[in-house]
Design brief:
The chain has 152 residues and is of the alpha+beta class. Helix content is 16%, strand content 38%. The protein has helices at 2-13, 28-34, 58-63; strands at residues 37-44, 49-56, 67-75, 82-83, 85-89, 107-112, 118-119, 125-133, 143-150. The strands form three sheets. The protein has a five-stranded mixed beta barrel. It has a two-stranded antiparallel ribbon with strand order 1-2. The radius of gyration is 18 Å and the shape is globular.
Length: 152
């Protein structure tokens, strides 16, 4: 469908000699399921304002505390080095949630086992770990991957 739309635009506007690049994005498997979240407004006494609280679908709840494997990109929090705590995104750095290009369901916090840091790369990687759902703590993301490790 996307290719058809691009072809129609090229034909309609007479665009010639243009090359289009498709960025690889995280696999649709677990990311597709994690998209099935909605939000409700909840007053947070600590912050003194209404915040969006996630409402996880049945499909998402079945993944809670289960090991999942997914592809995506490291969003480093402490420089471009080995990481034991970072944000993992379905999309590359320039398209991720924090840059305004996607929703909160496309990112998660990642914590690796001690001594099992993952070396930073800007390339698409595959990791696995135990998914933890967070619906209450506004200081953390709604998805947390614990005991994560790189899949080679």
């Amino acid at each position: 469908m996307k290719n058809t739309i691009v072809l129609l635009l090229i034909t309609f506007f007479g665009v010639q000699n243009m090359s289009f690049t498709t960025l690889p994005i995280g696999d649709e498997g677990p990311w597709k399921t994690l998209e099935k979240v909605t939000f409700k407004k909840k007053f947070d006494k600590t912050l003194g304002l209404y915040v969006d609280q996630p409402v996880f679908s049945k499909e998402i709840k079945t993944l809670n505390k289960k090991e999942i494997t997914l592809k995506g990109y490291i969003i480093p929090l402490e420089g471009y080095q080995e990481q034991n705590y970072f944000i993992f995104s379905k999309f590359p750095y320039n398209m991720c949630f924090f840059c305004g290009g996607a929703g909160p369901e496309t990112v998660m916090e990642v914590e690796t086992k001690k001594g099992k840091e993952i070396k930073y790369t800007s390339k698409l990687i595959t990791i696995k770990g135990k998914l933890k759902l967070n619906g209450d703590n506004v200081d953390r993301l709604m998805y947390i991957l614990e005991d994560a490790q790189l899949v080679k």
